[in-house]
Write a structure and sequence with these properties.
With 439 residues, this protein is mainly β. The strands form 4 sheets. Strands 1, 4, 5, 6, 7, 9, 12 and 14 form an 8-stranded antiparallel sheet that branches. Strands 15, 18, 19, 20, 22, 25 and 27 form a 7-stranded antiparallel sheet that branches. It is elongated. It is built from 2 helices and 27 strands. A hairpin with a 2-residue loop joins strand 10 and strand 11. It folds into 2 domains: 194 residues, Jelly Rolls; 191 residues, Sandwich (Jelly Rolls), CATH 2.60.120. The structure holds calcium ion (CA) (3 copies).
Protein backbone atom coordinates (compact mmCIF):
# COMPACT_ATOMS: atom_id res chain seq x y z
CA UNK A 1 0.00 0.00 0.00
CA UNK A 2 2.74 2.46 0.84
CA UNK A 3 5.27 1.19 -1.63
CA UNK A 4 4.14 3.45 -4.55
CA UNK A 5 4.65 6.54 -2.42
CA UNK A 6 8.08 5.45 -1.34
CA UNK A 7 8.90 4.49 -4.89
CA UNK A 8 7.94 7.95 -6.10
CA UNK A 9 10.10 9.54 -3.45
CA UNK A 10 12.96 7.22 -4.28
CA UNK A 11 12.60 8.13 -7.93
CA UNK A 12 12.57 11.79 -7.02
CA UNK A 13 15.65 11.44 -4.88
CA UNK A 14 17.66 9.53 -7.43
CA UNK A 15 16.55 11.19 -10.66
CA UNK A 16 16.31 14.84 -9.75
CA UNK A 17 19.13 17.15 -10.65
CA UNK A 18 18.08 20.56 -9.46
CA UNK A 19 14.41 21.18 -8.87
CA UNK A 20 12.43 17.95 -8.94
CA UNK A 21 10.86 15.42 -11.25
CA UNK A 22 8.46 16.26 -14.06
CA UNK A 23 4.90 15.57 -12.93
CA UNK A 24 2.07 15.75 -15.43
CA UNK A 25 -1.48 16.51 -14.26
CA UNK A 26 -4.51 16.85 -16.44
CA UNK A 27 -7.55 19.11 -16.62
CA UNK A 28 -10.78 18.49 -18.53
CA UNK A 29 -11.30 21.85 -20.25
CA UNK A 30 -14.15 21.50 -22.70
CA UNK A 31 -16.72 19.10 -24.10
CA UNK A 32 -18.59 20.19 -27.23
CA UNK A 33 -21.60 18.08 -26.24
CA UNK A 34 -21.94 18.99 -22.56
CA UNK A 35 -20.98 22.65 -23.03
CA UNK A 36 -23.44 23.54 -25.79
CA UNK A 37 -25.70 26.55 -25.16
CA UNK A 38 -27.38 28.95 -27.58
CA UNK A 39 -26.23 32.49 -26.86
CA UNK A 40 -24.99 35.39 -28.94
CA UNK A 41 -21.90 37.02 -27.44
CA UNK A 42 -20.13 39.73 -29.42
CA UNK A 43 -17.92 38.55 -32.28
CA UNK A 44 -14.76 36.96 -30.93
CA UNK A 45 -16.03 36.84 -27.33
CA UNK A 46 -16.41 33.23 -26.16
CA UNK A 47 -19.62 32.21 -24.39
CA UNK A 48 -19.64 31.22 -20.71
CA UNK A 49 -18.18 27.80 -21.59
CA UNK A 50 -15.47 29.12 -23.92
CA UNK A 51 -17.22 28.38 -27.21
CA UNK A 52 -18.40 30.26 -30.31
CA UNK A 53 -20.44 28.89 -33.18
CA UNK A 54 -20.34 29.81 -36.83
CA UNK A 55 -19.31 28.69 -40.29
CA UNK A 56 -16.81 29.13 -43.12
CA UNK A 57 -17.83 30.01 -46.67
CA UNK A 58 -15.53 27.76 -48.70
CA UNK A 59 -17.02 28.87 -52.00
CA UNK A 60 -16.33 32.55 -51.29
CA UNK A 61 -12.71 31.91 -50.23
CA UNK A 62 -10.37 32.72 -53.11
CA UNK A 63 -7.57 30.45 -51.92
CA UNK A 64 -9.86 27.61 -50.73
CA UNK A 65 -7.73 27.41 -47.57
CA UNK A 66 -9.31 27.97 -44.16
CA UNK A 67 -7.81 30.53 -41.81
CA UNK A 68 -9.06 31.64 -38.38
CA UNK A 69 -10.18 35.05 -39.69
CA UNK A 70 -12.56 33.32 -42.11
CA UNK A 71 -14.75 32.05 -39.24
CA UNK A 72 -18.14 33.77 -39.53
CA UNK A 73 -19.81 33.79 -36.12
CA UNK A 74 -23.58 33.29 -35.92
CA UNK A 75 -25.29 36.53 -34.91
CA UNK A 76 -28.48 37.14 -32.95
CA UNK A 77 -31.45 35.70 -34.80
CA UNK A 78 -29.47 32.96 -36.58
CA UNK A 79 -31.16 30.07 -34.85
CA UNK A 80 -32.22 26.81 -36.43
CA UNK A 81 -34.31 24.44 -34.31
CA UNK A 82 -32.63 24.34 -30.91
CA UNK A 83 -29.26 25.30 -32.40
CA UNK A 84 -27.68 27.80 -34.77
CA UNK A 85 -28.15 28.10 -38.53
CA UNK A 86 -27.55 30.46 -41.44
CA UNK A 87 -31.24 30.02 -42.21
CA UNK A 88 -34.08 28.94 -39.89
CA UNK A 89 -35.09 26.15 -42.28
CA UNK A 90 -34.27 24.66 -45.70
CA UNK A 91 -31.15 25.76 -47.64
CA UNK A 92 -28.54 26.68 -46.75
CA UNK A 93 -28.58 23.59 -44.50
CA UNK A 94 -25.70 24.86 -42.35
CA UNK A 95 -26.41 23.84 -38.73
CA UNK A 96 -24.63 23.65 -35.37
CA UNK A 97 -26.92 22.05 -32.80
CA UNK A 98 -27.08 20.40 -29.36
CA UNK A 99 -25.88 16.84 -28.81
CA UNK A 100 -22.98 17.53 -31.21
CA UNK A 101 -25.54 17.72 -34.04
CA UNK A 102 -24.53 19.47 -37.24
CA UNK A 103 -24.97 19.80 -40.99
CA UNK A 104 -22.79 21.44 -43.66
CA UNK A 105 -24.08 23.02 -46.85
CA UNK A 106 -22.90 21.84 -50.26
CA UNK A 107 -22.38 23.78 -53.47
CA UNK A 108 -25.39 21.82 -54.75
CA UNK A 109 -27.43 24.16 -52.48
CA UNK A 110 -25.59 27.45 -53.09
CA UNK A 111 -22.27 28.16 -51.38
CA UNK A 112 -20.33 25.39 -49.64
CA UNK A 113 -20.43 26.09 -45.87
CA UNK A 114 -18.49 24.28 -43.17
CA UNK A 115 -20.34 24.36 -39.83
CA UNK A 116 -17.88 25.26 -37.04
CA UNK A 117 -17.60 24.87 -33.26
CA UNK A 118 -14.79 27.10 -31.96
CA UNK A 119 -13.16 26.78 -28.54
CA UNK A 120 -10.90 29.55 -27.26
CA UNK A 121 -8.05 28.39 -25.03
CA UNK A 122 -8.13 31.07 -22.38
CA UNK A 123 -6.02 29.09 -19.88
CA UNK A 124 -2.69 30.73 -19.14
CA UNK A 125 0.17 28.61 -17.84
CA UNK A 126 -0.68 28.03 -14.15
CA UNK A 127 1.60 29.50 -11.50
CA UNK A 128 4.62 27.26 -10.80
CA UNK A 129 3.92 25.11 -13.88
CA UNK A 130 6.76 24.39 -16.31
CA UNK A 131 4.83 23.72 -19.52
CA UNK A 132 1.49 22.61 -20.86
CA UNK A 133 0.04 20.93 -23.92
CA UNK A 134 -3.49 20.47 -25.13
CA UNK A 135 -5.13 17.20 -26.16
CA UNK A 136 -7.97 17.27 -28.68
CA UNK A 137 -10.24 14.22 -28.92
CA UNK A 138 -12.34 14.70 -32.05
CA UNK A 139 -15.29 12.76 -33.42
CA UNK A 140 -17.65 12.59 -36.36
CA UNK A 141 -20.61 10.25 -36.69
CA UNK A 142 -23.19 10.14 -39.41
CA UNK A 143 -26.71 10.65 -38.02
CA UNK A 144 -28.41 10.22 -41.39
CA UNK A 145 -27.26 6.91 -42.78
CA UNK A 146 -27.82 7.30 -46.50
CA UNK A 147 -25.36 7.32 -49.38
CA UNK A 148 -22.34 9.65 -49.23
CA UNK A 149 -20.89 11.10 -46.05
CA UNK A 150 -19.32 14.18 -44.52
CA UNK A 151 -16.01 15.26 -43.04
CA UNK A 152 -14.47 16.89 -40.00
CA UNK A 153 -11.38 19.06 -40.14
CA UNK A 154 -9.80 20.18 -36.85
CA UNK A 155 -7.72 23.34 -36.76
CA UNK A 156 -5.46 24.59 -33.98
CA UNK A 157 -5.14 28.34 -34.50
CA UNK A 158 -5.77 27.84 -38.21
CA UNK A 159 -3.41 24.90 -38.73
CA UNK A 160 -5.15 21.68 -39.66
CA UNK A 161 -4.14 19.06 -37.07
CA UNK A 162 -6.63 16.26 -37.77
CA UNK A 163 -9.35 15.21 -40.18
CA UNK A 164 -11.77 12.37 -40.80
CA UNK A 165 -14.27 11.64 -43.56
CA UNK A 166 -17.27 9.34 -43.33
CA UNK A 167 -18.81 7.08 -45.97
CA UNK A 168 -22.32 5.94 -45.16
CA UNK A 169 -22.25 3.04 -47.60
CA UNK A 170 -19.59 1.41 -45.38
CA UNK A 171 -20.72 0.77 -41.77
CA UNK A 172 -17.07 0.85 -40.67
CA UNK A 173 -16.72 4.44 -41.93
CA UNK A 174 -19.84 6.00 -40.38
CA UNK A 175 -18.22 6.95 -37.07
CA UNK A 176 -14.62 8.14 -36.74
CA UNK A 177 -12.61 9.60 -33.89
CA UNK A 178 -9.04 10.38 -32.96
CA UNK A 179 -6.72 12.21 -30.60
CA UNK A 180 -4.09 14.83 -31.36
CA UNK A 181 -1.80 16.83 -29.06
CA UNK A 182 -1.13 20.47 -29.84
CA UNK A 183 0.64 23.45 -28.30
CA UNK A 184 -1.51 26.53 -27.71
CA UNK A 185 -1.07 29.96 -26.26
CA UNK A 186 -3.80 31.81 -24.34
CA UNK A 187 -6.36 33.12 -26.79
CA UNK A 188 -5.60 30.55 -29.47
CA UNK A 189 -8.62 28.87 -31.01
CA UNK A 190 -9.50 25.27 -31.83
CA UNK A 191 -12.00 24.90 -34.68
CA UNK A 192 -14.02 21.73 -35.30
CA UNK A 193 -15.34 22.15 -38.87
CA UNK A 194 -17.99 19.94 -40.50
CA UNK A 195 -17.58 19.81 -44.28
CA UNK A 196 -19.81 18.14 -46.90
CA UNK A 197 -16.76 16.28 -48.21
CA UNK A 198 -17.14 12.49 -47.90
CA UNK A 199 -14.45 9.81 -47.77
CA UNK A 200 -14.97 9.23 -51.51
CA UNK A 201 -14.40 12.94 -52.24
CA UNK A 202 -18.00 13.77 -53.04
CA UNK A 203 -18.85 17.28 -51.80
CA UNK A 204 -22.64 17.16 -52.10
CA UNK A 205 -24.59 17.70 -48.86
CA UNK A 206 -27.39 15.13 -49.25
CA UNK A 207 -28.03 13.26 -45.98
CA UNK A 208 -24.95 14.90 -44.42
CA UNK A 209 -26.46 15.23 -40.91
CA UNK A 210 -23.61 14.34 -38.54
CA UNK A 211 -22.52 14.62 -34.94
CA UNK A 212 -19.22 16.47 -34.81
CA UNK A 213 -16.98 17.99 -32.15
CA UNK A 214 -15.00 16.58 -29.26
CA UNK A 215 -13.34 17.19 -25.95
CA UNK A 216 -10.29 19.25 -25.05
CA UNK A 217 -7.98 18.51 -22.14
CA UNK A 218 -4.77 20.07 -21.08
CA UNK A 219 -1.78 18.33 -19.61
CA UNK A 220 0.30 20.57 -17.35
CA UNK A 221 3.82 19.70 -16.26
CA UNK A 222 5.14 20.72 -12.85
CA UNK A 223 8.45 19.84 -11.30
CA UNK A 224 7.66 18.25 -7.94
CA UNK A 225 9.38 16.33 -5.16
CA UNK A 226 7.04 13.40 -5.81
CA UNK A 227 3.82 12.03 -4.34
CA UNK A 228 3.26 12.81 -0.68
CA UNK A 229 -0.34 11.59 -0.37
CA UNK A 230 -2.73 9.44 -2.38
CA UNK A 231 -6.36 9.01 -1.33
CA UNK A 232 -6.75 5.72 -3.17
CA UNK A 233 -3.45 3.94 -2.47
CA UNK A 234 -3.32 5.02 1.18
CA UNK A 235 -6.99 4.39 2.00
CA UNK A 236 -7.43 2.35 5.17
CA UNK A 237 -9.66 1.51 8.11
CA UNK A 238 -7.28 3.22 10.53
CA UNK A 239 -8.01 6.86 11.38
CA UNK A 240 -4.86 8.93 10.99
CA UNK A 241 -2.86 6.35 9.05
CA UNK A 242 -0.64 8.13 6.52
CA UNK A 243 -2.19 11.38 7.84
CA UNK A 244 -5.66 10.57 6.41
CA UNK A 245 -8.83 10.75 8.48
CA UNK A 246 -12.32 9.83 7.32
CA UNK A 247 -15.67 11.37 8.09
CA UNK A 248 -18.21 13.79 6.71
CA UNK A 249 -18.90 17.51 6.59
CA UNK A 250 -22.37 18.64 7.70
CA UNK A 251 -24.36 21.58 9.15
CA UNK A 252 -23.43 23.94 6.34
CA UNK A 253 -23.83 27.69 6.26
CA UNK A 254 -23.42 27.62 2.48
CA UNK A 255 -23.86 24.28 0.73
CA UNK A 256 -23.06 25.68 -2.74
CA UNK A 257 -19.74 27.46 -2.19
CA UNK A 258 -17.52 28.73 -4.98
CA UNK A 259 -13.73 29.09 -4.94
CA UNK A 260 -12.64 31.26 -2.02
CA UNK A 261 -15.81 30.58 -0.01
CA UNK A 262 -16.29 28.35 3.01
CA UNK A 263 -19.25 25.97 3.26
CA UNK A 264 -19.08 26.52 7.00
CA UNK A 265 -19.71 22.88 7.87
CA UNK A 266 -18.17 20.87 10.66
CA UNK A 267 -16.04 17.76 10.12
CA UNK A 268 -17.40 14.69 11.87
CA UNK A 269 -14.78 11.98 12.09
CA UNK A 270 -16.14 8.42 12.03
CA UNK A 271 -15.69 6.42 15.23
CA UNK A 272 -14.13 2.96 15.20
CA UNK A 273 -11.78 1.34 12.73
CA UNK A 274 -9.99 -1.78 11.70
CA UNK A 275 -9.92 -4.46 14.43
CA UNK A 276 -12.58 -2.76 16.59
CA UNK A 277 -15.43 -5.16 15.94
CA UNK A 278 -18.41 -5.34 13.63
CA UNK A 279 -20.11 -2.23 12.21
CA UNK A 280 -22.76 -0.97 14.64
CA UNK A 281 -23.38 2.61 13.48
CA UNK A 282 -22.57 4.05 16.90
CA UNK A 283 -19.01 3.26 18.03
CA UNK A 284 -17.94 1.48 14.86
CA UNK A 285 -18.45 2.89 11.33
CA UNK A 286 -15.77 0.78 9.59
CA UNK A 287 -17.45 -2.06 7.70
CA UNK A 288 -14.26 -3.90 6.80
CA UNK A 289 -14.00 -2.24 3.39
CA UNK A 290 -15.57 1.20 3.85
CA UNK A 291 -16.36 3.99 6.26
CA UNK A 292 -20.15 3.83 6.13
CA UNK A 293 -22.87 5.93 7.78
CA UNK A 294 -25.34 3.09 7.37
CA UNK A 295 -24.67 -0.39 5.98
CA UNK A 296 -28.42 -0.98 5.51
CA UNK A 297 -30.20 0.15 2.34
CA UNK A 298 -31.32 3.33 4.08
CA UNK A 299 -30.12 6.87 4.74
CA UNK A 300 -27.64 8.25 5.54
CA UNK A 301 -26.18 7.01 2.24
CA UNK A 302 -22.84 8.56 3.16
CA UNK A 303 -19.92 6.16 2.67
CA UNK A 304 -16.50 5.88 1.11
CA UNK A 305 -14.10 3.10 0.23
CA UNK A 306 -10.76 3.35 -1.57
CA UNK A 307 -12.23 4.44 -4.90
CA UNK A 308 -15.94 5.21 -4.50
CA UNK A 309 -18.31 7.14 -2.30
CA UNK A 310 -21.79 8.58 -1.86
CA UNK A 311 -22.95 11.79 -0.17
CA UNK A 312 -26.25 12.29 1.67
CA UNK A 313 -28.51 14.92 0.11
CA UNK A 314 -30.89 17.64 1.25
CA UNK A 315 -33.74 15.24 0.44
CA UNK A 316 -32.63 13.31 3.55
CA UNK A 317 -32.73 14.57 7.12
CA UNK A 318 -29.17 15.90 6.89
CA UNK A 319 -26.87 16.84 4.01
CA UNK A 320 -23.47 15.13 4.44
CA UNK A 321 -20.36 15.37 2.26
CA UNK A 322 -18.26 12.23 2.58
CA UNK A 323 -14.75 13.49 3.23
CA UNK A 324 -11.19 12.20 3.08
CA UNK A 325 -9.10 14.64 5.10
CA UNK A 326 -5.31 14.83 4.76
CA UNK A 327 -3.52 16.77 7.49
CA UNK A 328 -0.15 18.21 6.46
CA UNK A 329 2.60 16.46 8.46
CA UNK A 330 6.02 17.84 9.38
CA UNK A 331 8.38 17.85 6.38
CA UNK A 332 5.57 17.90 3.82
CA UNK A 333 4.48 21.50 4.26
CA UNK A 334 4.93 24.00 1.47
CA UNK A 335 3.40 24.35 -1.98
CA UNK A 336 1.01 21.49 -2.67
CA UNK A 337 -0.18 20.30 -6.06
CA UNK A 338 -3.53 18.54 -5.63
CA UNK A 339 -4.49 16.40 -8.63
CA UNK A 340 -8.12 15.24 -8.36
CA UNK A 341 -10.80 13.58 -10.43
CA UNK A 342 -14.46 12.57 -10.44
CA UNK A 343 -16.58 10.20 -12.54
CA UNK A 344 -20.01 8.63 -12.31
CA UNK A 345 -20.00 5.21 -13.90
CA UNK A 346 -23.79 4.94 -13.42
CA UNK A 347 -24.32 7.91 -15.79
CA UNK A 348 -26.89 9.30 -13.36
CA UNK A 349 -27.37 11.61 -10.39
CA UNK A 350 -24.81 14.38 -10.20
CA UNK A 351 -22.14 15.31 -7.67
CA UNK A 352 -19.44 17.88 -6.99
CA UNK A 353 -16.01 17.03 -5.59
CA UNK A 354 -14.68 19.94 -3.55
CA UNK A 355 -11.07 20.47 -2.54
CA UNK A 356 -10.90 22.54 0.64
CA UNK A 357 -7.85 24.02 2.34
CA UNK A 358 -8.53 24.74 6.03
CA UNK A 359 -12.24 24.71 5.28
CA UNK A 360 -12.16 27.04 2.26
CA UNK A 361 -12.92 25.86 -1.26
CA UNK A 362 -9.84 26.06 -3.50
CA UNK A 363 -11.27 24.14 -6.46
CA UNK A 364 -14.02 21.72 -7.48
CA UNK A 365 -15.21 19.52 -10.31
CA UNK A 366 -18.71 18.28 -11.10
CA UNK A 367 -20.03 15.31 -13.05
CA UNK A 368 -23.15 13.35 -13.90
CA UNK A 369 -21.64 10.85 -16.34
CA UNK A 370 -18.91 8.27 -16.78
CA UNK A 371 -16.44 10.56 -18.55
CA UNK A 372 -13.53 11.16 -16.19
CA UNK A 373 -13.44 14.81 -15.11
CA UNK A 374 -9.90 15.77 -14.11
CA UNK A 375 -8.58 18.93 -12.51
CA UNK A 376 -5.77 20.19 -10.32
CA UNK A 377 -5.00 23.10 -8.02
CA UNK A 378 -1.85 24.51 -6.43
CA UNK A 379 -2.13 25.42 -2.75
CA UNK A 380 0.63 27.86 -1.84
CA UNK A 381 2.41 27.72 1.48
CA UNK A 382 0.47 25.01 3.30
CA UNK A 383 1.57 24.78 6.94
CA UNK A 384 2.05 21.75 9.17
CA UNK A 385 -1.38 20.89 10.61
CA UNK A 386 -3.34 22.42 7.72
CA UNK A 387 -6.20 20.27 6.42
CA UNK A 388 -6.86 19.33 2.82
CA UNK A 389 -10.39 17.94 2.45
CA UNK A 390 -11.40 15.84 -0.55
CA UNK A 391 -15.16 16.15 -0.08
CA UNK A 392 -17.96 14.69 -2.20
CA UNK A 393 -21.19 16.72 -2.14
CA UNK A 394 -24.58 15.92 -3.72
CA UNK A 395 -24.50 19.24 -5.61
CA UNK A 396 -24.99 19.26 -9.37
CA UNK A 397 -26.22 22.30 -11.33
CA UNK A 398 -27.82 23.74 -8.20
CA UNK A 399 -29.52 20.45 -7.21
CA UNK A 400 -28.47 19.12 -3.78
CA UNK A 401 -30.47 15.88 -3.71
CA UNK A 402 -28.60 12.56 -3.67
CA UNK A 403 -30.46 10.19 -6.03
CA UNK A 404 -28.02 7.95 -7.96
CA UNK A 405 -25.10 9.98 -6.53
CA UNK A 406 -22.64 7.03 -6.31
CA UNK A 407 -19.33 8.43 -7.56
CA UNK A 408 -15.73 7.50 -8.22
CA UNK A 409 -13.26 10.06 -6.93
CA UNK A 410 -9.78 10.58 -5.60
CA UNK A 411 -6.81 12.86 -5.20
CA UNK A 412 -3.05 12.66 -5.38
CA UNK A 413 -0.98 15.32 -3.65
CA UNK A 414 2.54 16.36 -4.68
CA UNK A 415 4.99 18.77 -3.08
CA UNK A 416 6.34 21.56 -5.31
CA UNK A 417 9.74 22.92 -4.29
CA UNK A 418 10.48 26.62 -4.11
CA UNK A 419 12.54 27.74 -7.11
CA UNK A 420 16.19 27.01 -6.50
CA UNK A 421 15.48 24.44 -3.80
CA UNK A 422 17.04 21.31 -5.15
CA UNK A 423 18.36 17.89 -4.48
CA UNK A 424 19.17 18.72 -0.87
CA UNK A 425 15.48 19.29 -0.13
CA UNK A 426 14.57 16.08 -1.94
CA UNK A 427 17.01 14.12 0.18
CA UNK A 428 15.71 15.75 3.36
CA UNK A 429 12.11 15.03 2.37
CA UNK A 430 12.95 11.45 1.54
CA UNK A 431 14.57 10.95 4.91
CA UNK A 432 11.60 12.41 6.74
CA UNK A 433 9.09 10.42 4.76
CA UNK A 434 11.01 7.22 5.30
CA UNK A 435 11.23 7.79 9.05
CA UNK A 436 7.58 8.69 9.25
CA UNK A 437 6.39 5.65 7.37
CA UNK A 438 8.67 3.26 9.29
CA UNK A 439 7.37 4.33 12.66
CA1 LIG B 1 -8.67 31.36 -47.11
CA1 LIG C 1 -21.52 14.89 -48.28
CA1 LIG D 1 -26.90 14.98 -6.65
Amino acid sequence: MRRPVLFSLLAAASVTAASGVPTVVRETLADSNLDFVVSFPAAGVPDANGWNYGYYDYTADGDSTYSTGEFIQFVSGQTRGSGFGVAASNAPWTLVGPGNDGHPNGANNGSEHWAIRRYTASAALPARAVSQSFEINWLIESTNVNPQGAGIRVFANGNEVASGFTLDSDPAQRALSGTVNVALNPGDVIDFALTPEAANGDRGDGSDGSDFGGTINRAVTFETLGVIADSRLEFSGVQGQDDWTYGYLATFANNQPTVGQSPGGTFNQYAGGDGQGAWDGATQFWSGTAWDGNTAAAQPWTFTNATDGHPNGTNQPEEQWITKRWTVPAGEDGNLLVDFDLAKSNNAGGTTLFVLHNGEVVDSVSSNNSTLQEDFVVIEGAQVGDTIDIALSPLFNGDTTDGSDASQFGATIYLIPEPGVGALAVTALFGLALRRRRR
